[in-house]
Amino acid sequence: MALTLLVLAMLGVLVFVAAWVVGGRALPQINSVQSLLPQGSQSSTQEEERFADDGAASTPLTSTDLNLIPIDASDATLPGAPESTEIQQIPLDSLNALKSLGWSVPHLAGFGLATEYAETGVVDGVRTVQVRLTDGEHRLDISETRPEESGVELAALESKLDDVVDTSAAVRETLALRTGDDCQLYVSEESQEWTAAMESSRVQYVVTSDLPAETAEQISNWVMATDRSRVQVLPIVPSGSERLERGFEELLAWLTD
To answer: In what order do the strands lie in the sheet with 193-200?
Structure first.
């Protein structure tokens, strides 16, 4: 009896160790935004007309089309990106992985808004990640721009606004945020939209929304406060229980195959 218990205990220890080792190997290796994108997937340009070769309208795209901008977001652009920029969608189930790479946008959730999609593009070594949040009635587009390498400089923040807002037809206001940053706010009465632009060290944010203009300052504070606080959670290291859970899942998959 004692021998049986000893054998069972040893088997339990071996299974535990195996799960720990396999769980470590199963951890995803994420070292860039590009690694999150489906390999060999399609992409879209800022001004894709979606017409067939004969001039007839092609089948409308939907949010289920792999890695394509949803048809209801055809007016979306990446601030500062030329029309020829290839835009790829980031799978929503991979969005949290951006946290370990130092991005703020996956931390942004609140105000009763849910993430509809996330997209990204690169221009001259500078990457922009944009998320669209919505409550079904209003939208909030938040773009975050960072250089992909240490030697790359960001363009002027104002250069990102041309495709987003008509600054000559909007009321401009400078807001002093609680983080100590300045925010340039543009409110367009004609389109009933507002755009906020702000930047900090090595990062720029452009926020556009059709939410009431009185929410602009609160949301801008939220974005920059998130940028400040994100460094407190870097790097993201899976807990021991998460590693064991991954390991047991891998072992179970092997046994059931």
So the answer is: 44-45, 86-89, 114-123, 126-134, 139-147, 203-209, 193-200, 182-188, 171-176
